[in-house]
Amino acid sequence: MNEKLFQHVNWDKMWEATVETLYMTGISTFYTFIFGLLLGVLLFLSSPGQLWKNKLVYGVTGAFVNIFRSIPFIILIILIIPFTTLLVGSMRGPEAAIPALVIGAAPFYARMVMIGLREIDRGVIEAAKSMGAKTSTIIFKVLLPESMPALLSGITVTAIALVGYTAMAGVIGAGGLGNLAYYEGFQRSRTDVMIVATVIILIIVFIIQFIGDVAVKKMDKR
Amino acid sequence: MIQLKDVNKKFGIGPKTIVAVDKVNLEIEEGEIFGIIGYSGAGKSTLIRLLNGLEKPSSGTVKIAGYEMSSVSAKELREARKKISMIFQHFNLLWSRTVKQNISFPLEIAGIKKAEREKRVNELIELVGLKGREDAYPSELSGGQKQRVGIARALANDPEVLLCDEATSALDPETTDSILDLLTSINERLGLTIVLITHEMHVIRKICHRVAVMEAGNVVETGSVLEVFQSPKEAITKRFVSQVTEPAGTEQVLAHIPGGTLIKLAFVGEKTEHPVLASLIRKFDIDVNIVQGNISHTKAGAYGTLILQLLGNEKDVDMAIAYLHELGVQTEVIDNE
């Protein structure tokens, strides 16, 4: 029955594409977390009334974040092709998708980091200052731990968005489930291939959400 | 210990400038519990933040524990803050850390080794009476317990000064008293100087040695607590004093007393024990009716007020009042028309 229902599905290829999608999502989520956190913390600290309040840094960082957050992903991929080739040496394959994925997602995550940090009670930061804490201590021992649930739920949302982005990257040749669904499924009118690829993407998303929810619940002691 | 000289603090620029602290001069002795009372917006929060450099004065000098806060370097400021700790109205604990870890935080900042931190944290938990709760998170604690964690945290680095920013204002009356008792015992045992700001005269009465009254950025009155209770000079001080000496509803009660002369007596210290009333009735041909009485215990002694209705002919009443003055009892005739 299996053979008939999914007669066009090549399970080996499907598995390979799944691994590629997981690979792209995993690596790009990792780098998005790092760069988004850096940007978000910088944005927060330089904002008015904060520890490093600085109109110039805040303005430049804010503009950078807003611009890259607003460019549609499919266009961003094409725009940064020269950068990608320089960095990866090729503009095809899963590796080549990663710079675009990170540049597209990190500013998005940076905003969420900033929102998370802004929710920390100012009094707690003041208390740390009143104990003689250095700014680095405040960042690593107050800001990050105190906003951890927000940082985790933010990265969960971002990772899920990244799964969607990898599918888009697939269309221009990055591989993965999106690539498979489009070329093998849509263009050849093989609905079963599209459906299977979509269901696998859904499962990946559900698993990410589940892991994120569990992690947030475990961290949140409020 | 603490010396403020011509301290000004302004916020904003141009026409929007707000003067939060206006030419304040204060001197606070080592080992004393000094209270600053004022309504919200009087500038007391800013004033206490000038003491640990969370705010810099616009002009004037702030000297505390040997540091000149208006001109210290960033590094010195961090050192100074280990000697000048602070507790807060909303406790400001890290919710992501347990009681133990919260108390350990200032020790981590000071770079103390783990084994030593552990030992010190256990001592502090014992000191503030939180034994058995060391692994709880702040969200699992009551307000009073949270403030105990705040106090333990503030004491971790053996400070010389403890600043209390409305430390009991978010607590119920009973918890307030237990926290105030804890502060008093810390002051006595460790010889710590405590500066507290509050809008509740009850707090001042219960634990302070001296008090400063603030209004619109100015310190309008300073003195020992008993002195201020006995003879408040400014209108605002009188209002604060009446918070604790007159039970709620006094005005309504007075309005319903018809006729006679109403007088308010104030007793301080030993005079509270003299049988003034008995001799008044015996010596003069008047009737005395007790309208209201109250004794407050301050740190330096008792302070009582008594409101009496005197009935009799005018001459006798006048003579009775003169007699009270003679005894040295502070007497004030209240207008009840």
Automatic annotation (TrEMBL), chain A:
<dbReference type="InterPro" id="IPR035906">
    <property type="entry name" value="MetI-like_sf"/>
</dbReference>
<keyword id="KW-0472">Membrane</keyword>
<feature type="transmembrane region" description="Helical">
    <location>
        <begin position="96"/>
        <end position="117"/>
    </location>
</feature>
<comment type="similarity">
    <text>Belongs to the binding-protein-dependent transport system permease family.</text>
</comment>
<keyword id="KW-0812">Transmembrane</keyword>
<keyword id="KW-1133">Transmembrane helix</keyword>
<feature type="transmembrane region" description="Helical">
    <location>
        <begin position="57"/>
        <end position="84"/>
    </location>
</feature>
<feature type="transmembrane region" description="Helical">
    <location>
        <begin position="193"/>
        <end position="216"/>
    </location>
</feature>
<protein>
    <submittedName>
        <fullName>ABC transporter permease</fullName>
    </submittedName>
</protein>
<dbReference type="InterPro" id="IPR000515">
    <property type="entry name" value="MetI-like"/>
</dbReference>
<dbReference type="InterPro" id="IPR051322">
    <property type="entry name" value="AA_ABC_Transporter_Permease"/>
</dbReference>
<feature type="domain" description="ABC transmembrane type-1">
    <location>
        <begin position="18"/>
        <end position="212"/>
    </location>
</feature>
<keyword id="KW-1003">Cell membrane</keyword>
<keyword id="KW-0813">Transport</keyword>
<dbReference type="Pfam" id="PF00528">
    <property type="entry name" value="BPD_transp_1"/>
</dbReference>
<feature type="transmembrane region" description="Helical">
    <location>
        <begin position="22"/>
        <end position="45"/>
    </location>
</feature>
Automatic annotation (TrEMBL), chain B:
<dbReference type="InterPro" id="IPR003439">
    <property type="entry name" value="ABC_transporter-like_ATP-bd"/>
</dbReference>
<protein>
    <submittedName>
        <fullName>Methionine ABC transporter ATP-binding protein</fullName>
    </submittedName>
</protein>
<keyword id="KW-1003">Cell membrane</keyword>
<dbReference type="InterPro" id="IPR018449">
    <property type="entry name" value="NIL_domain"/>
</dbReference>
<keyword id="KW-0067">ATP-binding</keyword>
<keyword id="KW-0813">Transport</keyword>
<dbReference type="InterPro" id="IPR045865">
    <property type="entry name" value="ACT-like_dom_sf"/>
</dbReference>
<keyword id="KW-1278">Translocase</keyword>
<dbReference type="InterPro" id="IPR003593">
    <property type="entry name" value="AAA+_ATPase"/>
</dbReference>
<dbReference type="InterPro" id="IPR041701">
    <property type="entry name" value="MetN_ABC"/>
</dbReference>
<dbReference type="GO" id="GO:0005524">
    <property type="term" value="F:ATP binding"/>
</dbReference>
<feature type="domain" description="ABC transporter">
    <location>
        <begin position="2"/>
        <end position="241"/>
    </location>
</feature>
<keyword id="KW-0547">Nucleotide-binding</keyword>
<keyword id="KW-0029">Amino-acid transport</keyword>
<dbReference type="InterPro" id="IPR017871">
    <property type="entry name" value="ABC_transporter-like_CS"/>
</dbReference>
<keyword id="KW-0472">Membrane</keyword>
<dbReference type="Pfam" id="PF09383">
    <property type="entry name" value="NIL"/>
</dbReference>
<dbReference type="InterPro" id="IPR027417">
    <property type="entry name" value="P-loop_NTPase"/>
</dbReference>
<dbReference type="Pfam" id="PF00005">
    <property type="entry name" value="ABC_tran"/>
</dbReference>
<dbReference type="InterPro" id="IPR050086">
    <property type="entry name" value="MetN_ABC_transporter-like"/>
</dbReference>
